[in-house]
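Field notebook, page 381. I keep forgetting to write these up properly, so this time I am using the form the group agreed on. The chain and the ligand, flavin-adenine dinucleotide, are recorded exactly as supplied. Prediction of the bound pose follows.
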Amino acid sequence: MEEVTVVIVGAGPAGLASSACLNVESISNIVLEREDCCASLWKKRSYDRLRLHLAKEFCSLPYKEHSPETSTFMSKDTFISYIDSYVSEFNITPRYSRSVESAFYDEKMKKWRIKAKNGVSGEMERYSSDYLIVASGENNEAFVPEVQGLTSFKGELIHSSEYKNGKRYKGKDVLVVGCGNSGMEISHDLSEYDARTSIVIRSPFHVLTKNMVHMGMLMTKYLPVHIVDTLISLAASITYGDLSKYGIHRPEQGPFALKLLSGKTPVIDGGSVSRIKSKRIKVVPEIVNINGTNIEFVDGTEQKFDAIIFATGYRSGAKEWLKDYQHVLDDEGMPKKKYPDHWKGENGLYCAGLSGRGLDGISADATHIAADIRELLKNKA
Ligand SMILES: Cc1cc2nc3c(=O)[nH]c(=O)nc-3n(C[C@H](O)[C@H](O)[C@H](O)COP(=O)(O)OP(=O)(O)OC[C@H]3O[C@@H](n4cnc5c(N)ncnc54)[C@H](O)[C@@H]3O)c2cc1C
Ligand SMILES: *[C@@H]1O[C@H](CO)[C@@H](O)[C@H](O)[C@H]1NC(C)=O
């Protein structure tokens, strides 16, 4: 058994940022990562055309800004090289191919006991620590909702995390389920590759350009949210007009208020809306039944599809291995406490990157956690 002050589960941006902040404070830590590389979500589970949706000043990790040459909305590859240099600059040495299978709190010894399977040797490794940071991501488990008749579907069925590009869907009828950022962007990509693309839209959402989001984020630093919402909504209606005739309805709450209240992010339009307007992407309502390749919708229409892509989001999945999750997580595997107090649990358990606030939220979590551990260690000494 190996003893260390802090164990961090996951070498995505949240785990790396946490490790960097601890290294700066000279607090010993071990990062355990299931995959054979860091930032595996970005390197292995994201589509080709992905660019960061948010401006670069909201996408950096602690102690390292993006370089002035980096474009405001950087590509996936630029972000990946930023991460790789972050790892070497802060001497982060994740232990790869370590899948954490269980972690529990030993009340008697006041230690966390962690078991990780070494994917190369096949051995079970044991770690013991005073503090444990859950950084396994809110995008860890692909989520597919229950749909009547789904098991009867004769075509191809994938989750957005498996989607790379639309090349092999040319000329095919493809249904995208889910109209968040991934669903909208994948629809756009499919339609550019000449797939006959439909998207299921069930509930209201805001559509904004990335510049509107950027402007709104800057304005919320100085203005009350309802004013920002009024201004940004005005800009959106000038740009897009009334989208309700295309099946896109705006929520009652403004985009930034809604984000604060429910964590629901606006859809950042990269061209999908103009394709919806020109009918190159068809909007369909909720699915009621699937039979073979035939899909029936709630408005009574039916259509045959060759493929369905579920862009229906993710679950954290941390409960699978974290036996004593209730010290920081709820039954959904998400933080028990409300933002901004979500990151700290009991008995030395923390979570980083589970606040639904992207890289900016991750950076704040890592900074808070490292400062907290530093203070606790100081008091102990
Ligand atoms: C398509 C897409 C686009 C996005 N675009 C943006 C954007 O533009 N801006 C933004 O701010 N955010 C964006 N996000 C949000 C994104 O989730 C974060 O930016 C970031 O990648 C999350 O980092 P993380 O470290 O919390 O989780 P992850 O990146 O998911 O990393 C978690 C790591 O933990 C590992 N792990 C999980 N379970 C275990 C286990 N049991 N044992 C060992 N290791 C484990 C995983 O293998 C993974 O490497 C996007 C997300 C997606 C899916
Ligand atoms: C599926 O379709 C077939 C042929 O169109 C029909 O015979 C069958 O009853 C349908 N099954 C269901 C469960 O709707």
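OBSERVATIONS:
- The chain has nine helices and 18 strands.
- Residues 9-15, 32-35, 40-41, 46, 50, 52-54, 59, 99-100, 135-137, 139-140, 182, 321, 353, 358-359, 362 surround flavin-adenine dinucleotide (ligand 1) (CB under 6 Å).
FOLLOW-UP: compare against the apo run.
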